[in-house]
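user:
I keep going back and forth on a fold encoding question. Separate attempts, laid side by side, tell us more than any discussion would. Would you put together a sequence-and-structure record for a protein of your own picking? Write it directly below this note and I will take it from there.

assistant:
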Amino acid sequence: MVDFYDELAYETNPFPETHPGNLATLGRLFGIPTASPQQCRVLELGSATGGNLIPMAWHLPHSEFVGVELSGAQVAIGQRIVEQLPLQNIRLDVGDILEIDPAALGQFDYIIAHGVYSWVPAVVREKILAVARECLTPHGLAYISYNLLPGWRMRGSLRDLLLHATREVTGAAAKYRAAIAALERLQQALVGAEADSQRYVQKEITYLLGSHPSYLLHEYLAGENNAFLFSEFLADAQRHELQYVCETDLHTLFDTTLSGAAQAALGDIEDPLQHEQWMDFVRMRAFRKSVLCRADVTLERAVDVDVFTEFFYSADLRLKGKANLSNTKPVAFLTPDNTELTVTHPLSKAALLYLQEVHPYTPDFNELYAHAAERVRDAGGKQFANARSELVSEWFSLYSYRAVYGHLHPCLIKPEWSERPEVSALARLQAAEGWQSVASIRHQALSLDDFSSRLLQVLDGTHTVPELTQLLCEEVTGGALPIPGGKQAQTGGKGLEKEIAANVKHLLSVFARHGLLV
């Protein structure tokens, strides 16, 4: 399996749910005095090339980060980036999880195992839990993601197909081609299929055909791929003196996200963890991202709303249509991947508009409420402006769906750029290394095409916007760089320059909103 990983490095993007800032706020909601993300120790098991851990180290210079990864080839990639930046607060080690000495590693406030637990043998899973228990600080949190029954059984049918289709093929590239051919054949065979299970498989095929090759190979063709009932995972964690806190997808804890019939059917299950297990059965859930703490920690199972309103907030959403700030007509906001979220209360709409304007700046709740109330009054919705409790309620719902993010510390960066714009050394280096995405200040993956990648590489603070436009014009004209959409074939001269200038200004706006500019 090591050779397979060495042959095709796993694409490691930043995962915002694993960020210590996100984990810290979740812990606070359940009464755990978690460590500040600004000054903490973080361990990642299965850190691959460091795509998740390195951006954390860059943005949190007073915290310490340790990654352990089995593949020496992947660690070498990450170490090269760490050395070039250079970063003094991160260490990426080649190591086998089974050989980890907890005493030598020390204590950590946050431990991450993303995309590892289901893909290793039972003995390694046991060691992951043992390391979590022995290495967590008294109020530390461990994040572990894993494939889940019963929902994984449908995805497992695609794994069966791909294992069969690639059984006689060797080499990562050849396996990938054979897997894609098999998926395309099945996709064609399912045209017009009406069964729910077939439609589910069609959706999964579409996702796989558009995903990075490493995801398909390492997820579906790995030597180990195990799925568990939530109750089984809990039992294993409890044997290691760990207890369950919550999911990073917080909304899944609440049965109000189920139908009325489902709520009624599960209403007499008093044990909250048994209740969650039954909700997995109802939802046919296939994946969990669970947060654990030590068993001796006292948890508050009821979310503390007063703690929630002490956070600072961010949201990267775009309004679709009209705001309707004077009434409760539903309004759609779009996430970066164009998922629609429905918002009804005028204060919530106005608060999201404010965050849209100032992102990545993070106001506290009082500032957010004040701006929203003023905007609602100005729009003729005076009767809604004082409904603070209703804003809190809908705001928490948005937070539970990770449409809104809460933070323990403010970000004061505003979406603007200087006469000679400059991006962070991290973003320039990620682009220069040919990465398909860069990490935003909010630890989200910002996808790149050739044009945006090239622009990042020349945003070193020495060029004005007109100079950047001229530089890229010359590269496009010389055939070294494509314009998004390939429009340079139809334009030339002033038309080409105007198109490139518009692209540069648009991308500068995007980079500013994602906190890449310095």
Remarks:
- The first strand starts at residue 41 and ends at 45.
- Residues 29 and 307 are 6 Å apart (CA to CA).
- The chain has a mean pLDDT of 92.
- The radius of gyration is 24 Å.
